[in-house]
Design goal:
The complex is a heterodimer of chains A (131) and B (132).
Chain A lengths: L4 H14 L10 E9 L7 E4 L1 H14 L5 E9 L3 E12 L2 E14 L2 E9 L2 H8 L2
Parallel strand pairs in A: 1-6
Antiparallel strand pairs in A: 1-2, 3-4, 4-5, 5-6
Chain B lengths: L5 H13 L5 H6 E8 L9 E3 L1 H13 L6 E9 L3 E12 L2 E13 L5 E8 L2 H8 L1
Parallel strand pairs in B: 1-6
Antiparallel strand pairs in B: 1-2, 3-4, 4-5, 5-6
Classes of the chains: A alpha+beta (131), B alpha+beta (132).
Chain lengths: 131, 132
């Protein structure tokens, strides 16, 4: 069974992020896409538009001295929504992150239009990204 | 088209059972050794190992809400190894009201039975305030 094209697109997004090729994300996300991060960390909030999303993704690298990595475990999608489950790893201020996270996405015309980022352990996520 | 995968049918049957339908679906779809995880820091935030413990969770969600707890499936996706269900969770307790989307991330065995389930609220703060 072949993956839905949106799942393949999301996989390319993870590959682009891993390669530091954030410009390639414009083929994955709608220009006015939003990305929401829950919780109490400095990363929490809603990022509106691809430019803000890319800036937030760059910040994850900056805050971790370039150690932040994401590796997709599995992806599912249809024409209207997509879900990614992935492993997030990194280190900062002597702390290690090794956490499963998920992205719950709304899809419009083949592109990701809205992302809600839901770590499987919000407390671990918040502790890592705070201070 | 993943939305039409046969394992989506298992998701629908489980939510039908939650809504008062045929509860045999719970025995047929949820593996006996399944592990259901509710993350967070409230009393229901536990790792429920085995179907009996999982059924206790289902009973607790009703008991703690004076039977008002409802979960209504909004959509599901599946392939041969995983499924996702997004549902509306509603209920009342202690003068509090829950009305949020939640997501199940599900690992499947070779027969499409659920072996690992993680239940994630899309609004963890609202979830914790309700169940605290």
């Amino acid at each position: 069974m072949s993956a839905h094209p949106v799942a393949a697109s999301l996989a390319r997004g993870f590959a682009a992020f891993a390669a530091g090729d954030l410009a390639a994300l414009e083929t994955v996300f709608a220009p006015d896409a939003t990305w929401t991060i829950r919780g109490r960390s400095p990363l929490a909030g809603t990022y509106v538009g691809l430019a803000e999303i890319v800036a937030m993704l760059r910040r994850t690298a900056e805050l971790t001295g370039g150690t932040y990595r994401t590796e997709p475990s599995w992806l599912l999608a249809d024409d209207e929504r997509a879900v990614a489950v992935y492993r997030a790893r990194g280190s900062r201020n002597g702390r290690e992150l090794d956490l499963e996270q998920s992205l719950l996405c709304r899809v419009e015309e083949g592109r990701i239009a809205a992302v809600l980022a839901l770590p499987l352990d919000q407390a671990v996520f918040d502790a890592f990204w705070t201070v | 088209m993943t939305g039409g995968h046969p394992h989506v049918g298992g998701v629908r049957r489980v939510f039908d059972a939650f809504g008062g339908g045929d509860t045999r679906a719970l025995l047929e779809v949820i593996a006996e050794e399944a592990v259901w995880t509710v993350p967070g820091s409230v009393p229901v935030s536990q790792v429920y190992a085995g179907r009996e413990r999982i059924f206790e969770l289902f009973r607790d969600t009703r008991r703690l809400t004076d039977q008002t707890y409802r979960s209504e499936l909004r959509w599901a996706l599946a392939d041969d190894t995983h499924a996702v269900a997004v549902y509306r969770a509603r209920g009342r307790r202690l003068g509090r009201k829950l009305d949020i989307d939640q997501m199940l991330l599900i690992d499947l065995d070779g027969e499409g039975r659920w072996t690992q389930i993680v239940a994630l609220p899309t609004d963890p703060a609202a979830f914790e305030a309700f169940w605290a």
